[in-house]
Automatic annotation (TrEMBL):
<dbReference type="InterPro" id="IPR001646">
    <property type="entry name" value="5peptide_repeat"/>
</dbReference>
<feature type="transmembrane region" description="Helical">
    <location>
        <begin position="12"/>
        <end position="32"/>
    </location>
</feature>
<dbReference type="Pfam" id="PF13599">
    <property type="entry name" value="Pentapeptide_4"/>
</dbReference>
<feature type="transmembrane region" description="Helical">
    <location>
        <begin position="71"/>
        <end position="91"/>
    </location>
</feature>
<protein>
    <submittedName>
        <fullName>Pentapeptide repeat-containing protein</fullName>
    </submittedName>
</protein>
<keyword id="KW-1133">Transmembrane helix</keyword>
<keyword id="KW-0472">Membrane</keyword>
<keyword id="KW-0812">Transmembrane</keyword>
<dbReference type="InterPro" id="IPR051082">
    <property type="entry name" value="Pentapeptide-BTB/POZ_domain"/>
</dbReference>
Length: 330
């Protein structure tokens, strides 16, 4: 993208201009300043001598103004004034040009991004899947040709994940949904660990069954009433995530970090929590038939009153959570 002149270029340009002006002025003085010699020898008239003295003084003053130290002082003052004015004008024009070009470039980037998002709503399943892959590529490696600031870059990345989250609650085609679940987890910019960054997203009502979301950071992500059967959360961070009333049948939470995670009224039948950290997780009214909690850490710190241990998940076998924990450890 073309830009206005930089400040260093403007300073060099003004310095060159002043140097040329000084050279021209000095050269003109050197070639056209003849030596004028006026003498009053042989002239006896006092009046004539007085006039000649005045003329000599006037010539001396003119020479001082055009060639002496006073002249150079005036010239420096002129250069400072003119250079400051020209430099200020050029810097202002350069700044305005940069802003204009930046705005035009941002419009081009927004137009390109919106065209990809528009494809995500196409009638063709192939086009929707292709759009999901293109958006995933933005998460994985932001396009270098989209020369935008870091703040705008983060905005686009976060917007892309939000669009994916919304699409998972709307998309009807299973293949396209699978493509979306793969590409939404390509942002590996988590600050704390080498995890895909899916923090604080709204995935309520999302249909992501059979998704592979291992090694993802879902801090405070909302999965309310989401369909996540057979989804893998292996080695993921699920701190403070909300799974209220979510379908998690057969989900894999092995080695995951479920600190203060809310599983209230969720369907966890045949899910596995092997080696998971369950400190403060809430299982109140959860369907837990066949749940595997082998070697789970902090299992005694689970929250909740009753859990549903019936195979059908119909609430016919409600037991205190303490009893279920004792049975699981046996």
């Amino acid at each position: 993208m073309e830009k206005g002149l930089s400040q260093s270029s403007i300073i060099m340009l003004i310095a060159m201009l002043l140097a040329v002006m000084i050279a021209v002025i000095y050269g003109v003085q050197y070639f056209i300043d003849p030596e004028i010699s006026i003498t009053s020898e042989g002239l006896g008239d006092r009046k004539i001598e007085y006039e000649i003295s005045k003329l000599v003084a006037e010539i001396s003053r003119i020479r001082s103004d055009t060639a002496g130290s006073l002249f150079w002082l005036k010239l420096i003052a002129l250069f400072v004034t003119v250079g400051g004015a020209v430099g200020g004008y050029l810097i202002g024009q350069s700044y305005t040009t940069d802003k204009k070009l930046s705005f035009e470039h941002r419009k081009d980037v927004d137009a390109a991004y919106q065209s990809i998002v528009h494809e995500l709503s196409a009638d063709s399943q192939i086009l929707r899947a292709a759009a999901a892959v293109k958006l995933g590529a933005i998460l994985k490696s932001f396009p270098v040709e989209w020369d935008v600031g870091s703040k705008r870059r983060r905005q686009i990345i976060q917007l892309t994940k939000q669009i994916f989250a919304a699409a998972l609650s709307i998309e009807a085609d299973q293949k396209v949904r699978k493509t979306i679940t793969i590409n939404i987890a390509l942002d590996a910019s988590d600050e704390n660990e080498n995890l895909s960054d899916l923090r604080e997203l709204d995935l309520s009502g999302a249909c992501g069954s059979d998704a592979y979301w291992a090694r993802c950071d879902f801090f405070e992500t909302d999965f309310f009433q989401a369909d996540l059967g057979a989804t893998s959360f292996r080695r993921s961070s699920l701190e403070y995530a909300q799974f209220r009333e979510a379908d998690l049948q057969g989900a894999v939470f092995d080695e995951s970090k479920c600190v203060e995670t809310n599983f209230t009224s969720s369907d966890l039948r045949r899910a596995t929590f092997v080696d998971a950290v369950l400190d403060g997780a809430n299982f109140d009214q959860a369907k837990v038939f066949g749940v595997e909690v082998r070697r789970a850490k902090s299992i005694k710190n689970l929250k909740g009153h009753l859990v549903d241990c019936s195979a059908e998940g119909d609430g016919s076998i409600l037991v205190p959570i303490e009893k279920w924990i004792e049975g699981s450890e046996a």
